[in-house]
């Protein structure tokens, strides 16, 4: 039986091996939820980059560009970090450059893996269904917040572990902890997360609807996968 492990923040990634491993990156509030939504609504590709300067360079080369720092849109860019911004028919087929505080950095740090997938509660079962067909270990990389652990991404890791517990061994404490947290909170994630730091950060910006949306399970049968430098849609 292959293993499923959890890396609680990208700053701990060097302690994990990504050889013979599929990495699932989760930034629930809100980058990976945006990405899954974008592909569900027909976006062609997303190029995740670590820095604002890289994103601006791609914008100048003709890409639509989305940039977020500290949960706010960076001035001068086309799109923000709300999934509702990607429910726009004008974006169908578009190629988008994206940088966020945590999520895109986590993706760029994972390139050495066998595959890099984008996970969220919105496509939880689609990710699990795909992984059930794969012969590799799995590492869930929680994007966290500026190198620190956050609760929502850890809960996603636990949810994925819960879906895959019959197919993957949970041998490491990170996976066991994430799974137990999810089992404790799954019946009402909004209440369970009520005092979480990023929830408070987003609530100050008045975007409670984004929080509720991002915690919905299994809305889309879409799995974004990194191919080269771009994320593309993989239907499962």
From TrEMBL:
The reaction(s) this protein catalyses: (2R)-O-phospho-3-sulfolactate + H2O = (2R)-3-sulfolactate + phosphate
Cofactor(s) demanded: Mg(2+)
Organism domain of life: Bacteria
Record-linked InterPro entries: ComB-like, ComB-like_sf
Assigned EC number: 3.1.3.71
Top-level EC class: hydrolase
Any one GO MF annotation of this record: magnesium ion binding
Keywords: Hydrolase, Magnesium
Gene3D superfamilies named in the record: ComB-like
HAMAP family linked to this entry: ComB
Protein family per UniProt: Belongs to the ComB family.
Protein name: Probable 2-phosphosulfolactate phosphatase
The organism of origin for this protein: Fibrella aestuarina BUZ 2
């Amino acid at each position: 039986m292959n293993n499923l492990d959890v890396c609680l923040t990208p700053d701990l990634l060097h302690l994990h091996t990504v050889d013979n491993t599929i990495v699932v990156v989760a930034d629930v509030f809100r980058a990976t939820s945006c990405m899954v939504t974008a592909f569900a609504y027909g976006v062609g590709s997303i190029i995740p980059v670590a820095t604002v300067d890289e994103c601006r360079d791609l914008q100048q080369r003709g890409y639509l560009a989305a940039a977020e720092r500290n949960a706010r849109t960076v001035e001068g860019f086309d799109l923000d970090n709300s999934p509702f911004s990607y429910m726009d028919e004008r974006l169908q087929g578009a190629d988008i450059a994206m940088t966020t505080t945590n999520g895109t950095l986590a993706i760029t740090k994972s390139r050495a893996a066998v595959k890099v997938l984008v996970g969220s509660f919105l496509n939880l079962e689609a990710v699990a269904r795909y992984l059930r067909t794969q012969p590799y270990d799995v590492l869930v990389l929680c994007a966290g917040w500026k190198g620190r652990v956050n609760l929502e991404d850890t809960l996603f890791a636990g949810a994925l572990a819960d879906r895959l517990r019959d197919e993957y061994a949970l041998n490491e404490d990170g996976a066991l902890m994430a799974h137990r947290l999810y089992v404790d909170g799954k019946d009402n994630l909004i209440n369970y997360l009520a005092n979480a730091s990023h929830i408070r950060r987003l609530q100050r910006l008045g975007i409670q609807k984004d929080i509720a949306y991002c915690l919905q399970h299994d809305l889309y049968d879409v799995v974004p996968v990194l191919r080269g430098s771009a994320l593309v849609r993989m239907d499962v």
